[in-house]
TrEMBL record:
This is 1-deoxy-D-xylulose 5-phosphate reductoisomerase. Residues 150-235 form the 1-deoxy-D-xylulose 5-phosphate reductoisomerase C-terminal domain. Belongs to the DXR family. One of its GO terms (biological process) is isopentenyl diphosphate biosynthetic process, methylerythritol 4-phosphate pathway involved in terpenoid biosynthetic process.
Length: 404
């Protein structure tokens, strides 16, 4: 029995993870669920999976959950412990009786728990790409030190993980990693129409159903940019050996090109239960609930180059990876502020890359002692905070300029 802790259980990845676990009561038990606030969803999950502990980041929601548990569960021994204190919540990722931590909180909010899991040598099923983008060097060296295994569940990285040779370091055997991208909802939209893009349109992804932040990231293609950086850390590859290929059908999830001209690809329906089941079962293969792939019915698969003019966020991410140091963290934090402002109607779609570039320039120009490569996760979080302040101040400058 693998004992699982799911950080971000009420989100899109959390729900898909539980949908796979549900099929295998003989293999997995859910020890811990952690979420921000959606008590109704959490209550249903608690009733079904009977975790021992539940972490709720919002203390008001945590109180409400405790009350509802007392009302609905007469037997106190069946009520999970509800934890809301920030440090204790993070420590749930490092507990002795947890084998596998699913890191599926969205954004930098997931960094501390991912770090706790890696530092404790857990098997970490990583969806939270932002924690690798912000703190890749620290995460990878901690994993080496503690023996933590990081198995990617981001579909592209999971595909690459499946295609890589087991016994050779990727940098030696592999010529290139090729990440596929659906191109998002605006792949064919003319540049002139980008100014009018609404949050609703940006969140309507053609192939995948996901949380709002990553949906906007897919629409700007920053998601692919963050994934390029994620791949660089996971597989130890430089930017020059990571390509992006637009593939609108989202059937080929990524490819690995070898020195002899061979290219291996992983295919499947665009359904996150497949990479999640692969990671949960690894090294075994287990059922995910996803149907077989019928290539005769699909017929044609298309591929094209990404358009960096209409999707400058992808360029910004490549530049950040090549620059190194604090640049990826800066782009990631500025992107989170930009996406939140776009979803709130405070920033236009075209202003997302503008805000990221201006924040980056401000931060890198001031690259003094305060902005050196962080030496600890505390440094990363402090720097992330500073970048957010710069980005927030920059929004006022961008939107307050009165059309000049
Ligand atoms: P989502 O918005 O659907 O869910 C986010 C989850 O994080 C929720 O359970 C929420 O309660 C929790 N959360 C947010 N802030 C928190 C906090 N401060 N403390 C504790 N919990 C908090 O997001 P999602 O689409 O499931 O994405 C989650 C992560 O997985 C992201 O990093 C995303 O990039 C990555 N990812 C998602 C997909 C996908 O198909 N959805 C695919 C690949 C990677
Ligand atoms: Mg992905």
């Amino acid at each position: 029995m693998k004992k699982i802790a799911i950080f971000g259980s009420t989100g899109s990845i959390g729900a898909s993870t539980l949908a796979v676990i549900e099929r295998h009561p003989d293999r997995f038990t859910v020890e811990t669920l952690v979420a921000h606030a959606r008590i109704d969803v959490l209550l249903t999950q608690i009733r079904q999976f009977r975790p021992r502990q539940v972490g709720v980041a919002d203390p008001v929601a945590a109180d409400s959950l405790r009350r509802q548990l007392v009302q609905t569960e007469p037997d106190p021994s069946l009520r999970p412990e509800v934890i809301d204190e920030a440090r204790a919540l993070v420590e749930l990722a490092a507990q002795d009786d947890v084998d596998v931590v699913v890191a599926a909180i969205v954004g930098t909010a997931g960094l501390a728990s991912t770090w706790a899991a890696v530092s404790a040598g857990k098997q970490v099923l990583l969806a939270n790409k932002e924690s690798l983008v912000a703190a890749g060097a620290l995460m990878m060296s901690a994993a080496e030190r503690t023996g933590a295994t990081i198995i990617p569940i981001d579909s592209e990285h999971n595909a690459i993980f499946q295609c890589l040779p087991v016994d050779t370091a990727p940098t030696k055997a592999v010529d290139k990693l090729i990440l596929t991208a659906s191109g998002g909802p605006f792949r064919t939209l003319p540049a002139a129409a980008f100014a009018e893009i609404t949050p609703e349109a940006a969140c309507r992804h053609p192939n995948w159903s996901m949380g709002r932040k990553i949906s906007v990231d897919s629409a700007t293609m920053m998601n692919k940019g963050l994934e390029v950086i994620e791949a660089a850390w996971l597989f130890g590859m430089p930017a020059a050996r990571i390509d992006v290929l637009v593939h609108p059908e989202s059937i080929v999830h990524s490819l690995v090109q070898f020195a002899d001209g061979s290219v291996l690809a992983q295919m499947g329906h665009p359904d996150m239960r497949t990479p999640i089941a692969h990671a949960l079962g690894w090294p075994d293969r287990i059922a995910s609930g996803v149907g077989n792939l019928d290539l005769r019915a699909i017929g044609t698969l298309c591929f094209e180059a990404p358009d960096l003019d209409r999707f400058p966020c992808l360029r910004l991410a490549y530049e950040a990876l090549e620059h190194g140091g604090v640049a990826p963290l800066t782009v990631n934090a500025a992107n989170e502020i930009a996406v939140a402002a776009f979803l709130d109607g405070r920033l236009s779609f075209l202003q997302i890359p503008e805000l990221i570039a201006r924040t980056r320039d401000t931060v890198l120009e001031a690259a003094d002692a305060d902005y050196t490569q962080p030496a600890s996760i505390a440094d990363v979080l402090a720097l992330d905070d500073r970048v957010r302040s710069v980005a927030t101040a920059t929004i006022a400058r961008i939107t307050g300029r009165g059309g000049r």
